[in-house]
Amino acid sequence: MKQFHEAPNTFVSQVDLKVENLERSLTFYKNIIGFQVLEQSENKAVLTADGKTPLLSIEQPEGVIPKQPRTTGLYHFALLLPTRADLARVLQHFVNISYPLQGASDHLVSEALYLADPDGNGIEIYSDRPADEWNWHNNEVEMTTQGLEVQNLLAEGEGVSWNGLPAGTLMGHIHLHVSEFAKTEEFYLKGLGFEIVCRYGGQALFISTGGYHHHIGLNTWNGVGAPAPSENSVGLKWFSLVYPNEQSRREAIERLQTMGASVKEEDGVVLTKDPSGTHIRLLV
User: Fold this and answer.
1) Which terminus of the chain has a lower count of CB atoms within 10 Å, N or C?
2) Which of 167, 197, 156 is nearest to 82 (CA)?
3) Pairing of strands 170-177, 216-219
4) Residue 21's Cα: distance from chain center in Å?
């Protein structure tokens, strides 16, 4: 399913989280999730699945405070595994260590496990069903939330033991709490260039490029008008979007600027901010 996370599509490539205790989070992300450390400093670590590609960075800011409830920002980031058998091995790993899950769902387009890190940052680990099995109606993909057939999934593990995240793991998507939809839709659709692929229950919106079921999820479940969290609170610091080429990124920047959105460049990195205060890096 890698075709949805490479050119000519625009997709999420890396997420940066703020945590209260770097050492505690490192232990969790290495031992429970299965990441490898790519780089590490006193207050930050960059994590990888293949030993070379950064997927997640975690940092402990000065004066960090716990995650603030009912704010905008991260609902969950989602790690996409190469195969269903990989997901089965992750589930068996969680069963073996008795790690508590927050959910296990069949979304028709994918099968997913949900949990949280020690700071309450949401995590989804999932595998996609083949794209030719997704059902589309009037340019919207059919998605739902059903209970996962756990025994059926575990049988797919083929008796192979879990050995960390497989090298082909990708940052499949990110799902965000937002404060409202009008300006948010304008920002992500007209500005960044995404398309709506599913409206879910009137309070959630799924958007993508290239016909993926979603590269970004947006919801108002923390309340319409929810405030942005404090800069030093646990949660999402930024996520990065990769454009297929410099021209497509430049066009997105020009659209954002025309809309009056915040766009600036720091150390060669283009940064923008959505209407709910979430920071985004625009890469090529």
Assistant:
1) C
2) 167
3) parallel
4) 21
